């Protein structure tokens, strides 16, 4: 019953189904060869092609049965066999249906390689040897060189994305185009790189990620189908399974009691295009030269005799797979054909427009000379117009040409100088040292920091302008130069050298401008602030600082008085009690020299009474002169109470001078006069810096453009 059901299901067909199949075959025979021709053309273009054509990519792990499936579809043995040879390059296999010739049946089938145009291989063993030789070559070898002396096997087992394109004509095939991708491997073999698995997966993904690619995922039935590498990669590239066909091989060697029925029905991993189960030739069958025709007959018998596959005729066998692939590919081409036609038309229009820009080819020397002069004149005119902002193709979205140069000068260079403070890196101590080491504040007017603050931005501005001129030069090169790439490179080199030769003199001129400003300080400049005005402003600043100092001192004193009020009152009561006790002696006699009571002069000295905080703030806000007078007063009082009078005769007899120290530092405390001098110096420095800055802002752009 199972035999009858399978044979009837596989042979029965309605007239409508027959007509539909005939129509599909007619469409397939017309559109698939057209796509094949486009693939051949784009293959010669290489990576410059940006159009993705419809194709079927065969994905599977090594030993999954991919090669047996392809040979069964062709009906002939043509792929290399053995553990030492595996597919390491994509094999684009184009099957072309060829009507049978009654006169010579042997000439009905042949193969052609794209890299051997015009040569037909009637012996499929020669096709196998050609593929084997190509695969044996190192991956970086140019396999298009087919000289017999170069046909020596290489030992490299790496992978390459360079395609092998094989076209097979036969009356026994349907119009199908397949791309056999390298089998997924996990363990490197021989001298394969350690990352061979990652390389193969990257190559496979570069094909199947395109929406125009149908994925033929081949998985062996004697392994865990749920963890199939092919199905996992297909799910990544095609999450909804809308363009994936599952092929389950080796159904005849599954464990006893198991079958793939649920997989074929899509109950485990659903695929919209479904599954097809096949039975491969075993290695023993291949070694015993079992023909593919006999293998297909044995496959048909297997599915008829297995109850598990009863009623699944449309899901089983190589003939069903070939028919399914043909129908799906034709339908897929019809779906993507409108968009494909639109993309090709748009690119064709763009290429035609680019070709028209090159102009007509010129053969005579006189014509070439005139064309060269015309190109040079156009370049010079375009460059001048761009610098002056008169070019016709001026952008309304962004600044270009001379506008960018003006922006660099005014909005970048000038503003950067205006934001510089000449006294930012100069401390008051630096100015004090300069004043004390020189004859006056004017000698410290132009410091090295001010020189660098103008020199470095000026050089950077020149580099910016140079870069802009280089960009403008590239934009001005005439489109006709694309017809003469050697001339374009020569003009690039000459113009680049011309601009570089002008950059060095500009940098030298910038250095001279800065040095000139440093070498002569024109204090008679009408915009210079002058000495009297600087002194007046400096005195105002010093007075303002002193007022602020007195105000802060008063605030601190009030704060400290409030905190120590109780202590001060207690201290006053104690002092009064002691004074009364000191004045009242025995029998009413008042004594002022009782031990422990200091004289009034000593009690009035600064720092002799009160808290430690008061002494600290007093030492901060007292001026240097006040501290000097206080020290002299303390010394005189101490001498009157402590030290005896020296021997004057001995003092005036010998006078010895101290040797000056090796390193002589200025006094640590800043006097009022020094503060005034520092303020005057800063005013003079800022005033003259503004004069120099305006000169630099005017002369540097002129020097650069000159």
Automatic annotation (TrEMBL):
Write the protein's name.
Answer: Dynamin-type G domain-containing protein
Instruction: State if Transit peptide is listed as a keyword.
Output: no
- What keywords appear on the UniProt entry? GTP-binding, Nucleotide-binding
What family is reported? Belongs to the TRAFAC class dynamin-like GTPase superfamily. Dynamin/Fzo/YdjA family.
Q: Which PROSITE patterns does the record associate with it?
A: G_DYNAMIN_1 (PS00410), G_DYNAMIN_2 (PS51718), GED (PS51388)
Give start and end of each Dynamin-type G domain. Answer: 50-338
One GO cellular component term of this record is: cytoplasm
The record places domain GED at: 678-706
InterPro entries in the cross-refs:
Dynamin, Dynamin_GTPase, Dynamin_GTPase_CS, Dynamin_N, Dynamin_stalk, G_DYNAMIN_dom, GED, GED_dom
Q: Among its keywords, does the record have Nucleotide-binding?
A: yes
Q: Which residues cross the membrane?
A: none
Q: Name one GO molecular function term.
A: GTP binding
């Amino acid at each position: 019953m199972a035999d009858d059901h399978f044979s009837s299901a596989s042979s029965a067909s309605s007239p409508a189904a027959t007509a539909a199949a005939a129509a599909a075959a007619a469409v397939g025979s017309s559109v698939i060869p057209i796509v094949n021709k486009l693939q051949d053309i784009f293959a010669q273009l290489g990576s410059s092609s940006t159009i993705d054509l419809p194709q079927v990519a065969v994905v599977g792990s090594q030993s999954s049965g991919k090669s047996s499936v392809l040979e069964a579809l062709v009906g002939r043995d043509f792929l290399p066999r053995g553990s030492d040879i595996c597919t390491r390059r994509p094999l684009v296999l184009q099957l072309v249906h060829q009507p049978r010739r009654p006169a010579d049946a042997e000439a009905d089938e042949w193969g052609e390689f794209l890299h051997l145009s015009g040569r037909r291989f009637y012996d499929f063993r020669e096709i196998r040897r050609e593929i084997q030789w190509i695969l044996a070559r190192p991956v970086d070898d140019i396999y298009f060189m087919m000289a017999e002396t170069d046909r020596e096997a290489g030992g490299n087992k790496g992978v390459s994305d360079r395609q092998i394109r094989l076209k097979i004509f036969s009356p026994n095939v349907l119009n199908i185009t397949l791309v056999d991708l390298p089998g997924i491997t996990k363990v490197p073999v021989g001298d394969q790189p350690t990352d061979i698995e990652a390389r193969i997966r990257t190559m496979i993904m570069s094909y199947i990620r395109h929406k125009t690619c149908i994925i033929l995922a081949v998985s062996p039935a004697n392994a865990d189908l749920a963890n199939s590498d092919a199905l996992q990669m297909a799910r990544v590239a095609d999450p909804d399974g809308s363009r994936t066909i599952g092929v389950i091989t080796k159904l005849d060697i599954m464990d006893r009691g198991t079958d793939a029925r649920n997989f074929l029905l899509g109950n485990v991993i659903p695929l919209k295009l479904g599954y097809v189960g096949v039975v491969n030739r075993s290695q023993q069958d291949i070694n015993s030269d079992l023909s593919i025709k006999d293998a297909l007959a044995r496959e048909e018998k297997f599915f008829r005799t297995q109850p598990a596959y009863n009623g699944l005729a449309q899901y089983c066998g190589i003939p069903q797979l070939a028919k399914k692939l043909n129908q799906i590919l034709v339908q897929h081409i019809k779906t993507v054909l409108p968009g494909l036609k639109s993309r090709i038309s748009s690119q064709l229009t763009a290429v035609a427009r680019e070709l028209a820009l090159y102009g007509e080819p010129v053969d005579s020397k006189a014509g070439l000379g005139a064309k060269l002069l015309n190109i040079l004149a156009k370049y010079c005119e375009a460059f001048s117009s761009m610098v002056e902002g008169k070019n016709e193709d001026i952008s309304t979205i962004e600044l270009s040409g001379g506008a960018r140069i003006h922006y660099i000068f005014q909005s970048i260079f000038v503003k950067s100088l205006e934001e510089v403070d000449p006294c930012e890196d100069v401390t008051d101590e630096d100015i004090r040292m300069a004043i004390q080491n020189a004859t006056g504040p004017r000698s410290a007017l132009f410091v090295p920091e001010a020189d660098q603050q103008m020199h470095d931005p000026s050089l950077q501005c020149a580099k910016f302008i140079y870069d802009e001129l280089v960009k403008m030069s590239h934009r001005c090169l005439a489109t006709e130069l694309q017809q003469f790439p050697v001339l374009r490179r020569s003009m690039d080199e000459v113009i680049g050298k011309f601009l570089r030769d002008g950059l060095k003199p500009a940098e030298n001129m910038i250095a001279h401008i800065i040095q000139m400003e440093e070498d002569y300080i024109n204090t008679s400049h009408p915009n210079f602030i002058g000495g009297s005005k600087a002194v007046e402003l400096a005195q105002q600043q010093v007075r303002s600082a002193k007022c602020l100092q007195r105000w802060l001192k008063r605030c601190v004193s009030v704060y400290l008085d409030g905190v120590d009020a109780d202590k001060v009152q207690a201290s006053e009561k104690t002092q009064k009690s002691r004074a009364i006790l000191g004045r009242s002696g025995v029998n009413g006699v008042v004594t002022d020299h009782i031990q422990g009571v200091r004289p009034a002069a000593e009690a009035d000295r600064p720092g002799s009474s009160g808290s430690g905080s008061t002494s600290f703030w007093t030492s901060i806000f007292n001026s240097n002169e006040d501290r000097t007078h206080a020290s002299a007063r303390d010394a005189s009082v101490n001498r009157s109470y402590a030290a005896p009078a020296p021997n004057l005769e001995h003092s005036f007899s010998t006078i010895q001078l101290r040797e000056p120290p090796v390193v002589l530092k200025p006094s640590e405390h800043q006097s009022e006069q020094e503060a005034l001098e520092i303020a005057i110096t800063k005013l003079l420095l800022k005033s003259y810096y503004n004069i120099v800055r305006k000169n630099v802002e005017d002369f540097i752009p002129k020097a650069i453009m000159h």
